[in-house]
Hints:
The protein is built from five helices and three strands; from the N terminus they run ααβααββα.
Amino acid sequence: MITVSAPSKTNLQAKLFRGFGDPSRLGILDALRNGPLTVSEIVEATSLSQPNVSNHLSCLRDCGLVVAEQQGRYVTYHLSDDRVGELLALTESLLADVALGVYECTRYNIPRTEK
């Protein structure tokens, strides 16, 4: 029998934050804070392409951050837990105080044009 050790708490937290670490996924999560949306509504809210939205929704569903529900002939998506929205709100609050430091941080690999 093969024994697989459980990931450490820190590694699991880092993996969770990878779900939040992409601007497209953050845009989708932010759009879903206002309530359930279809893919076309998410496309409209985020200005992302439909294939891009679908790809990121798949990732967010697999990670347990978003839930899909069939609504007639449409599928609607919503945050899996209210705490996802609360975490996004807390991030906005924190950024209000530390945005300059985050903006000027040179340790993250983000091209200057996106800052």
